[in-house]
Request: fold
Amino acid sequence: MKILKIEGDRAIVSAGRVERRIGINFLNNPRIGDYVMVHAGFAIEKLDPKRAEETLRILEEIQ
Amino acid sequence: MHDLIKKLFVKELGNPLLNKLGDAAIFKTGSRLAFTTDSFVVSPIFFPGGDIGKLSICGTVNDLCVSGARPRYLSCAVIVEEGFGYSDLEKIVLSVKMTCKKAGVDIITGDFKVVEKGAADKVFITTSGVGDIYQGASLSIERIRPGDKVIISGTIGEHGAAVLLAREELKFKAKISSDCAPLNGLTSAILNKGIKFMRDPTRGGLATTLNEIAIDSGYNIGIEESKIPIKESVRVLCEALGMDPLYMANEGKVVVIVAPEAEGKVLSIMKKHPLGRKSVIIGEVKKERNKRVYLKTRIGGKRIVDMLSGEQLPRIC
Amino acid sequence: MKYIDEFRDNKIAKNLAHAVSKKAEGLRPLSIMEVCGTHTMSICNFGIKDMLPANINLISGPGCPVCVTPKSYIDKAMAFSKKPEVILTTFGDMARVPGSDSSLMEEKAKGRHVRIVYSALDAIELAQKNPGKKVIFLGIGFETTSPTVAASLVYARKKKLKNFFVFSGHKVILPAMEALVKDGDVKIDGFLCPAHVSTIIGIKPYTLIAGKYKIPCVIAGFEPVDILQGIWMVLEQIRSKRPKVENQYTRVAKDSGNKKALALINEVFSVKDSEWRGIGTIRESGLFLNRKYSGFDAERVFSIKPVKTRPDTGCICGSILKGLKAPFDCPSFAKTCTPEKPKGACMVSSEGTCAAYYKHRI
Reply:
């Protein structure tokens, strides 16, 4: 889900027009626009787009 | 009580038959009838896209429609818990009024009771309905054959998702509305165009309805996940909660089984109707007879889709 | 949706499935175990087993935290719920697990104050809104969930809440993995390690499994492409006879894990031996509130009569959780034990092996 708004250690996140207020206590330097994995009302980690692209590239090479 | 019935129910829902307030409504209608009944106990009673009043009319009207009947007259029995607010009751009655108008039906007899606090959960409504079977309509599960196509009239899971969100415990915000709607216009338009069977996938979702059809017809049904229409917000919510949209309730959709030679025509008629714009063929009836529903997943895998057992609960990991 | 749809891509999945088949060619029959409820569900939902060659057997281990919660815990939770001043809050799928006499869902139907919540923070909010009541939260879950409960307790302490409590049943996955490996009965040729637990704990804990027991460990995401790539990576390790810990889920899980989350776990919990339903006691496998947070510990604060827990009969969840038997081997499966009337925990949670098998008739 994507961070839309940050209020201290809480944030509003959204995906597919579904929103929720969650805790972001575990994140380092959270920013608006970051993609995060949400579990039980908290963001447990950011998603790294560069690493995502890297994985997809490796996948293309697997035959 | 009599006052309340006159001032609210008769005032808003009145018609020549109801106004008589007789012990029974006496009426004449077609020669072949369809008759159905349903109780409505939804909680919460107000939710995005509708309320228990609207639901109680749509549910019964739709059961008649998918049976090949033109819905005509309904009964409506309301039980409220002591202390239930008048303004809420009025909202529900007005909603019933509006939905009856939209569906072209009249409530011709009814009942109203108050029970002590705790004996009912706010309000329960039971509606029964009578409809005339359309001339030439020959819907029957026995007509289903291998090769028949399975059509769904639109996106799935919205009613279930809307009601779940309205319960507030889960604190997700989404613009998801119940799809609750009377289906008369849609079903009557396709009735004599080569369709073999219809059912509205309500509680238990699309999966349960398809299983019922597989079991009753004796044939397997194969569907493709990539073809099943679903709103992104419903999909996201279900994934966040670990629920399967195939099992989420619908209240304004219809599953149509149609002969392959008629699929194009039926689909095009459905898509022209406001309630059927997203109609799509999602699968077909197979020749194998283990009465199961098989899903080809979006990545090409295969799984069996079973009936809903118990209640879906949001899960953790 | 970005970064999800790509990992569900049809073409990539099919290519991977083909690559997995090639990698598996000529290998003896292999058993790869996943220990994560979300992996179990994903594998079922996407029909992944159907795409694998016959010599690869995917087995579900004790990855469903609800399934491994001991019956005595549920009996105690129900005893708590019977106290008139208590509102018991729980994650959804805990509510239907049968204890000795009934389940929380059944107690709720009888009028007890049992509420389903999505997050421990929601339970705190309930406590703040109901100062006259005592809110007990059932803390269940592995290392993905325990930091969220820890963070909630830190918040509750900061707010000086006097009516919020946690009954901890949290567990730590590594000891269970090691216990399974040491158990002579279970044959495990490789592990698919849980995506989000690994996001918290990193790769270090698994080095014991790969280093000491020489079993390949691959951290894999939940999407079908992740799982297939994870399986491919396990097979590659088996072929090259070089077992190690690898991370397929680099877009989320860092090798070092999430330090803040780990710090929160250490702040609030201490590790002790704990009972796993169907498996027995595993050393140092459970998280319990430490002394600093004892004021929030439901077990210490509330006195309940000792519960008499009836042992499971006719339920082989234990063997199923270890991957030794399949649901079909259970005499109760689909007969006296169904999702509507579950006898054991594996049937209740939608992540439970028996529930997944029942639903998908694998």
Chain C touches chain B through 52 residues (CB under 8 Å).
